[in-house]
Amino acid sequence: MVQLRQIVFIALKDLKRFTRDRPALIAFILFPFFFVALFNFLLGGVGGEDTRLVFHVVTLEEAG
User: Fold this and answer.
1) Fewer C-beta neighbours within 10 Å, C or N terminus of the chain?
2) Is the pTM higher than 0.90?
3) How many structural domains are present in the chain?
4) SS3 state at 58
5) Does 16 fall in a domain?
6) Structure confidence by residue, pLDDT tens digits, 21-62
7) Looking at residue 15, what is its pLDDT?
8) Which residues, at least 6 apart from 25, have a Cβ–Cβ distance to it below 8 Å?
9) How far is Cα 10 from Cα 12, in angstroms, rounded to an integer?
């Protein structure tokens, strides 16, 4: 139980330290959106045509 308390204490300390570092916090939030937009732009035309899958559902229920 003491080890768990130490782990939580260290995690909270690091989280508090991270939230005080503005450039790191901004990069942490903005970079994922930037990379999604970048890869969407670069790979947007890959695949060409619309390939949708059609699923049929069969049940064993009786009609009525």
Assistant:
1) C
2) no
3) 1
4) coil
5) yes
6) 999 999 999 999 999 999 989 987 776 676 788 899 888 887
7) 92
8) 18, 19
9) 5
